[in-house]
């Protein structure tokens, strides 16, 4: 975010706009690499993003690989293309690859029932017996999501994954298997156990020996213990006592959640991963999958909104008429994003170590430079400005700042209905639901039509024991969008 804030200053706004306009004119004369570097360097200068890396393949050639900022605010050690980041949900792509490898060996089938592979898997819902491997890969199993990853109580032993699967006996499905899309980290943790039991190796051993090592991802690992201090990055979160970004006291690692979350990788290794996928499982004389498998991996299984679909773990959309395969990730203090355009042998990957890192925004900006489309400004996150003003002038002043921001439509600040939610979420996660609710109430005044805000506010109210209010908020959300499946699933849950 901006390193200083001047509220309600039209002079500042005009001065800032003028400088950015000059910068835009200047970078259009530069090479693509220099344009990207200029944009990203400026982004670091005018925001409080801690550290990140960006890697780009364009027409099957690496044209960009660079780190920015710091691995840790305390040590001030610089990010390089070799620095290792927690990749969060990008991990799921490796689960899908592992499943398809086992399918090629005829050791598993996408139509196999989970209970046939894990006899001890059961839920408090008889429909669980019908869930298939393929449904879990496409988030069509009806499985709920993880409520608590227990990052503050991590387990490290190999048996922790099976114990976790066995602990799910009291969970219920959100919908009939195969009917609706419900993103589920829990499903991918179960799939990791399927991989372990079918292969006879731990999930981490299987992925290391069958994916990471064969393709040369020599620094990557699903085990936190495999991350050397010399390459590690620290997670950074909003500090609500000092009203700034700071090193998190909690690291997002817990071995039972390896399948959904625990890959650690860097720009160098993820570029190799992108190459193998762009070339349908082959690269540099090595092979991890047959090219025909990608017709299955990248087949549209379910439409999830607009022109967006889910395949087997990969999300499918388009960019100016080009088919895009992607997956993002976000856990405490880390954000990541990988995007492929197979028809052009193009990929962009980014990873950052702070809650306010705009991974998708970076990827989109890089694509616009690559393809010479009209370029959106890479905006600084508004949430950090709100936090700073909150700390120095109080919550009412911070709210007035946001109200003015909405009126000004500042093109250089990232501000939408998610800005305050991204502050409310860690407050809720850190055990302060009352303050989280206060922020969501303010957000309701700014964005009364925000479905996301309604949903999260209902979840906080329900957590606080205010069930009737939570149900009413969800009813209000349905007035905005009667067909929103997540709202409907929450309403069903809270009424039961």
Structural overview:
With 496 residues, the protein is of the alpha+beta class. The protein has a domain at 52-357: Beta-lactamase. It has 19 helices and 16 strands. It has helices at 10-27, 32-45, 92-104, 114-117, 133-137, 160-166, 185-199, 203-212, 258-261, 267-278, 293-297, 359-371, 382-393, 395-408, 418-429, 433-446, 451-463, 467-480, 485-495, and strands at residues 51-58, 61-69, 85-86, 236-239, 244-247, 264-265, 282-283, 286-287, 302-305, 308-310, 315-319, 322-331, 334-341, 346-352, 380-381, 413-414. The strands form five sheets. It has an eight-stranded antiparallel sheet with strand order 2-1-14-13-12-11-10-9, sandwiched between helices. It has a two-stranded antiparallel sheet with strand order 3-6. Strands 4-5 form a two-stranded antiparallel sheet. Strand 12 (322-331) and strand 13 form a beta hairpin. Helix 3 packs parallel to helix 7, helix 3 (92-104) packs across helix 8 and helix 13 packs across helix 15 (418-429). The protein is globular, with a radius of gyration of 22 Å. Mean pLDDT is 90; it is low at 1-28.
């Amino acid at each position: 975010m901006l390193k200083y804030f001047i509220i309600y200053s039209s002079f500042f706004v005009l001065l800032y706009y003028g400088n950015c306009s000059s910068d835009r004119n200047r970078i259009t004369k530069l090479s693509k690499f220099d344009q990207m570097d200029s944009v990203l360097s400026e982004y670091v200068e005018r925001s409080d993003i801690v550290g990140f890396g960006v890697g780009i393949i364009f027409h099957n050639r690496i044209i960009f690989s660079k780190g920015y900022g710091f691995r840790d605010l305390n040590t001030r050690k610089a990010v390089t293309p070799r620095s290792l980041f927690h990749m969060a949900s990008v991990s799921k792509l490796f689960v899908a690859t592992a499943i398809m490898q086992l399918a090629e060996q005829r050791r598993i089938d996408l139509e196999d029932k989970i209970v046939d592979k894990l006899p001890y898997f059961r839920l408090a819902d008889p429909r669980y017996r019908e869930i298939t491997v393929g449904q879990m890969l496409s988030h069509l199993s009806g499985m709920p999501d993880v409520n608590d990853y227990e990052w503050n109580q991590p387990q490290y032993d190999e048996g922790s994954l099976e114990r976790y699967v066995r602990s799910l006996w009291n969970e219920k499905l959100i919908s009939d298997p195969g009917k609706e899309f419900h993103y589920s980290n829990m499903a991918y943790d179960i799939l990791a156990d399927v991989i372990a039991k079918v292969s006879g190796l731990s999930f981490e051993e299987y992925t290391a020996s069958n994916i990471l090592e064969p393709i040369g991802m020599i620094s990557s690992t699903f085990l936190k213990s495999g991350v050397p201090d010399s390459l590690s990055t620290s997670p950074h979160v909003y500090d609500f006592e000092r009203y700034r970004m700071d090193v998190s006291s909690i690291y997002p690692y817990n071995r039972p959640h390896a399948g959904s979350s625990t890959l650690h990788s860097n720009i160098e290794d993820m570029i190799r991963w992108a190459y193998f996928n762009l070339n349908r499982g082959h690269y540099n004389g090595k092979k991890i999958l047959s090219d025909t498998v990608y017709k299955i991996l990248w087949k549209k299984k379910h439409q999830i909104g607009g022109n967006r679909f889910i395949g087997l773990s990969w999300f499918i959309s388009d960019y100016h008429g080009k088919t895009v395969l992607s997956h993002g990730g976000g856990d405490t203090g880390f954000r990541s994003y990988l995007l492929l355009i197979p028809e052009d042998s193009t990929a962009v990957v980014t990873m950052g170590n702070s809650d306010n890192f705009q991974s998708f925004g970076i990827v989109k900006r890089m694509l616009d430079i690559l393809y010479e489309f009209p370029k959106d400004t890479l905006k600084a996150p508004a949430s950090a400005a709100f936090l700073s003003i909150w700390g120095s002038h109080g919550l009412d002043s911070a709210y007035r700042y946001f109200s003015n921001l909405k009126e000004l439509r500042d093109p250089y600040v990232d501000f939408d209905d998610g800005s305050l939610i991204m502050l409310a979420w860690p407050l809720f996660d850190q055990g302060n639901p009352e303050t989280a609710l206060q922020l969501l109430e303010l957000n309701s005044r700014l964005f009364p039509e925000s479905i996301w805000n309604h949903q999260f506010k209902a979840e906080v109210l329900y957590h606080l024991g205010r069930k009737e209010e939570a149900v009413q908020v969800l009813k209000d959300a349905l007035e905005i969008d009667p067909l929103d499946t997540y709202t409907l699933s929450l309403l069903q849950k809270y009424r039961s």
